[in-house]
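Entry 14. Two folds queued back to back today. First construct below, sequence then structure tokens.
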Amino acid sequence: MTFKSEGILPVRIPFWCLGADFIDLLQDFVYHGLAAFFYLSAGVDLAYITFLVKPLNSRIYHIDIAAVVFAFIATLLYFIHTILSSIRWKNF
């Protein structure tokens, strides 16, 4: 059984034999990508609902605005981490 190297990974080596580091880096990339997507979708939904609902109580309205800002900041940080994880995963 011969192994030819075409690029980074040799041919005919199963994915699960690549090692724990490779799989951990891939999981890190996928996890933070999904977290960024879900935080973005939650932030957009909350911003839209906050925009549509008339503020009956200004305190609740300000809490909703703070939650939207937090969601967008969390999305930005998760997205940056996803980019850095993908760079680290590709350089592995």
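Second construct, same run, same settings:
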Amino acid sequence: MAHKDNRRCTRCGNPLSRYNTDERCAACARVTGNEFPAAPTLPDHVWQNPTVAAALADWDFGTAFRLIRQIASLRQEDMSAITGLSQSFLSTLESGARRLVNIDKIVPVLERLGVPPASGATSRPGFRCPVSAAGFRRAVHAVIHP
């Protein structure tokens, strides 16, 4: 049975390849010097946009991320630094080719984005989650409301 490597980059927290013997991922290792640029932050007005709120309420993260990027004038690389998701995954997510459905990824992403409780991401009347909606909402609620 293969051993799962759970090492993470010391700068950005992304998982490291099992072939990477460094403490940093390749992207972080390319940055020269000891000072790493801080991940961009999202302005508060992003969460006041009704289209963003609707996408989050529907748990349509691809649309939400695209709208957030456009409103905040961010690149996918910037969004990747904030969320911890790869730029290529964000691209396929935004295009609709893939969906973010794994609770182990959704909860940390919402936390890193700083999604406020009133955004609608934690609940939506009539929404049916494919995996234990009540448990999912409790987990998301616990992260957003520590």
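Quick look at the second one. The helical segments are 26-30, 50-57, 61-72, 76-83, 87-95, 103-113, 133-144. The chain is about 45% helix and 0% strand.
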